[in-house]
């Protein structure tokens, strides 16, 4: 990609976003790192240096997104934006029959509608506007392998990532009008604080349901998989290639266990159901 190397990364305070900001800054890019807290902004400035400019972005607040885009526009001084990395997100778990509806709403607002807000305000800087001159930017959406398959008790997160796959595909086809490309990164378990936050989820709200034992198992499994996962720097390198390769993959899958991911995609659906539910104790004989 020619032209000035500048990128906006949402959710940059920790994990994948932080690693991407550090990696791209090390490659000579000017990074606008989206954070929600002033304390995180100060920390990023102190640890990552002048190449990284923290920007306050709350993806659930359209006015916050608009203000961030104006801050970036002013900082660029008329130059185009080279890339947008839609990374901000949370993970919500729980059995659908008992999940508080507001938790599903929160999950989708952050992981899906939030990406729409950010994309709408930054797309003109990437070249998605009539009369734009100069190189066109690129959008990289951080999806998940959960965008291809949905584990039981993880429906809110999986719904959001399935939606992100549709969002990415539709947006890519719509932005062909302007020559702005859109691709996705699909990580499996990554060592990031999103898995530590899973420890903060209170399984007690489901302790009087038939799903209590399975909830305990899935939370334990999530924490172990996350802590044994790939380093976020692996995703950061993939983001760099997604932004710079002449013809990037539409989906870059990153997982510490690619065979299992492949197997889940080729086994008959009913067989996969039985395997997964057997491990979690989601079978009638467990009632």
Which SSEs are present, and which pair or pack?
Layout lengths: L5 E4 L5 H12 L3 E6 L2 H11 L3 E5 L5 H15 L6 E4 L14 H26 L11 E5 L12 H21 L5 E7 L5 H6 L13 H16 L4 H13 L6 E4 L3 H9 L2 H12 L7
Parallel strand pairs: 1-2, 1-4, 2-3, 4-5, 5-6, 6-7
Helix pairs in contact: 1-8, 3-4, 4-5
Question: What does this 3D model show about the protein?
Answer:
The chain is an alpha/beta fold and 287 residues long. The protein has a single domain (6-257), classed as Rossmann fold, CATH 3.40.50.720. It is 49% helix and 12% strand. The chain has a 7-stranded parallel beta sheet with strand order 3-2-1-4-5-6-7, sandwiched between helices. α1 crosses α8. The longest helix has 26 residues, at 101-126. The termini are far apart.
